[in-house]
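Problem 12. The chain below contains 419 residues. Write out its predicted structure in token notation.
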Amino acid sequence: MSKLTKRSVDSMAIPAKGQIFLWDEELRGFGVRAMPSGLKVFVLQYRNEEGRSRRIVLARYGVLTVEQARKQAIMKLGSVASGADPAEERAQSRAAITIGEVCNWYLENAESGKLLGRKHRPIKASSLAMDRSCIETHIKPLVGNRQVRHLRTADIEKMQSDIAVGRTAKLRRARGRSGRTTGGPGVAGRAVATLRSILAHALRYDLVENNPAAGVRKIAAKPRTRRLSAEEIRELGKAFPIAERNGENPTGLAAIRVLLLTGYRISEVIGMERGWLHADKGFVHFPDTKTDGQIRPIGESAISVLTSVPQKRGLPLFFPSDLVDRPFSAVPQVLRTLCAIAGIEGVSPHILRHTFGSVAGDLGFSELTIAGLLGHGARGSTQTYVHLDEALRLAANRVSEKIANLLDGRDIAILDIAA
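Solution.
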């Protein structure tokens, strides 16, 4: 046993199972606990007035330094000497904490970078934005006032079914061109997953005593099979000049065309910066995407659209808002207008992405190549051994050219795409 230091904590072994402790020789009861996950937390063990041994978690190592945790331990021991029982106080606080309070704690700590998400990295701003929307729109209205200790699996499954049938559906804003939250099985399943993750973080930090969402079975969302047929792509192409003459926003129209010609996610297109496009080499370098930084192929037809988009106010974005220095956010609304002109229903930005992948399949490209085109994360070791750079550039060119020809009505006599 020795005095705790950063070096001794860093060199502390990680157990294969169970937990191990490293205690400080100068401050009795102050130590570090290591767990198989690699998480290390500062702990304080003491005896209360009744002589009962109690242990509390002070903080995660990294959130506090060794010296900061030592000072906190000294303060806690001082309160114990005065007759207080920090473990009992914390237990009472945990017993009364509500789902809404846990959600607030999660958002505050995740935004400050204290909570780690995928691959043990701080949770991305885009993920937090979706989590916040889910919390405020679905979780808080249905179970936000419930205490965690009283929440049961059946309560969360009821929350899920209420979201699925649209109980939390509402207009996001009464004015403007914003969308509508309608609920549904997919949204309901994601809400359960979000709540489960939030409570898992809270459990790890000793904020709650259990995770009532851990055993909830998520509603299986229906697979998305909608795609644009060749005829629908042609009709969409005819709608573009009509929309332009009607005064539809040119930024939104250009973004839709790029979505269809690349298969990129909507967040990737509207957030794309001019410096990321390497037109001469046929790729876009995204510093950060849903599956981390990526180099993604892009066809010449899509490059032609991007290079023709005029730069606004010297901003680096290809598709900035007309009013503020942020990405253009009304693409879904422009797409609805465009589809209304074309007489097409049930089309979202994701349908454009699915259409791109489906056209790639129609042209005979493999699932592995299509996954690379769409920027899906590696799903197996095979991808490690396949050099796809040239194949992807070829595929991106062929698919974008095929779709561009359909949009411009130049491909009527060639292979039609099934609906």
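Discussion. DSSP finds 15 helices and nine strands in the chain. Students who got a different answer should revisit the alignment rule from Section 12.3.
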